[in-house]
Amino acid sequence: MPVGPIKDIAAAAPRGRALLALDVGAKTIGLALSDASWRMALPVGTLRRGKFAADAAALARLMAQHAAEGLVVGWPLRMDGSVGPRAQSARDFATELRRALGGDPWIALVDERLTTAAALTALGGAHPRRAKARGALDALAAQAILESALSALIGPA
User: Fold this and answer.
1) What three-state secondary structure class fits 105?
2) pLDDT single digits (tens) 108-135
3) How far apart are CA 69 and CA 20, in angstroms?
4) For residues 34 and 146, what is the distance between their CA atoms, to the nearest angstrom?
5) Where are the alpha helices (DSSP H) in the chain?
6) Cα separation of 96 and 51, whole Å?
7) Is 13 exposed, middle or buried, given 0-12, 13-18 or 19+ CB atoms closer than 10 A?
8) What is the model's pLDDT at position 119?
9) What residues have CB less than 8 Å from 78, skipping those under 6 apart?
10) Rounded Cα–Cα distance for residues 31 and 11 (Å)
11) CA distance readout (Å), 3 to 111, 112, 139
12) Could you give the domains of the chain?
């Protein structure tokens, strides 16, 4: 299964299994997890980025720990919907992660436009440069990405 936009690969999603969402940034990866029924999306923290192999191993452990069989990766498209350098970088990360994980993991790209703004609103406008707020912001952005994915997979609640 190739990495692709969720609308193109939704039919192959691992039904009845948890999904792990990633908000991939330069320094951290925000993390959120769904339940197996895809009814809830919960922020679970952040991963401080290091070397790619270490990041991939940490994500593999997290997936195993929570029996997650699919990944949702935030795809920062431009406001006009086109793919720019940041979106291509996210796709490249997802493709390399798929190779590093081995097997044939389901990895969907989900439009993440405005998820950081939604996360800031959820934080009550906390300043994102504060370390504690930044970690919460990344995890909440991952949660917003995952909620968008779940809506695409099962429809609005």
Assistant:
1) coil
2) 999 987 666 665 566 565 555 554 455 6
3) 8
4) 7
5) 6-9, 52-65, 85-101, 115-122, 131-154
6) 13
7) buried
8) 59
9) 84, 87
10) 23
11) 14, 16, 22
12) 4-154 (3.30.420.140)
Residues 6+ away with beta carbon under 8 Å from 108: 3, 4, 5, 6, 9, 10, 13, 70, 71, 72, 73, 149
Sign for the CA dihedral angle at 142, 115, 35, 40 comes to positive
Q: Whole-angstrom Cα distance, residue 123 to residue 126?
A: 6
Q: Report CA torsion sign: 19, 23, 28, 32.
A: negative
Residue 110's nearest CA partner among 48, 33, 23, 30 is 23
Q: Tell me: the pLDDT tens digits for 62-78?
A: 999 999 999 999 999 99
Instruction: Identify the sign of the CA torsion 149, 80, 89, 131.
Output: negative
